[in-house]
Amino acid sequence: MSKEVLLSVKDLEITFGSGKKKFTAVKDASFDIYKGETFSLVGESGSGKTTIGRAVIGINPVSAGEIIFEGEKISGKRNQKLREKVTREIQMVFQDPAASLNDRATIDYIISEGLYNFKLFKDEKDRKEKVEAMIQEVGLLPEHLSRYPHEFSGGQRQRIGIARALIMDPHLVIADEPISALDVSIRAQVLNLLKKFQREKNVTYLFVAHDLSVVRYISDRIAVIYKGQIVEMAETEELFEHPIHPYTKSLLSAVPIPDPKLEKEKKLIVYHPVKYDNSSDLPSFVEILPGHFVWANQAELSTYRENLETIKK
pTM for this one? Predict the structure, then answer.
């Protein structure tokens, strides 16, 4: 059964500044996100993962390549109808729940804002019912609606942010490090909440993170990004079982092991980019195993294939 592609990113390049000050934040990024899946972008701070997420919703301009959402190109200039479609159908859950909520607005207004903007309710009674149902879905109470964001903990504020996004019945949710600002004890609750909505409403997620252990729990497929370049992409277990690119191996080696003895004996892999002559041997995104892609030139590919053969033996 062929999967339905919801979002397609093709040869994406995002730059900031111009002339000598021009900085390329993302280059040659290509991936598809299928309907109903969680696709994760993983990399260290400054790798360009949030930049891609912000480009999808139109905050960051695209300098080359294209973004296609439900068959329509949404990168570049958007007419009003397309802008409204993107705002209505793609929602974002932000990293810092304290900064992303308006402290002067009540929770009722914050969650209702999208409903007001797109007139997604029949009357005041219908709006109230929708908001009350949603606040309970995220584990808060209807009496919380009259309060303000500063009266809540970080985990509760993030639940409000999720409610604000999901009340719109979006087709795609970009979750930008949604748990990195939260206490460890609260993180699993927020992840379970996101998975619950995926099961019940068939929500599709683009999940941005730097923590691979979190990503393993929630993702169907993972793309690893390094300095704006996607270096490896595969299904979750495949990536963890057979990491190919040295940068992926280095990220995986940094994941803590819950056993103190094993953690002490663990060897960290430090990634040192090998300088290959790319003037004639240009790298490209190659499918090295079924559904498993790696960014490499011919010299690197032969090395990776030899390593795979050794593992299989």
Answer: 0.92
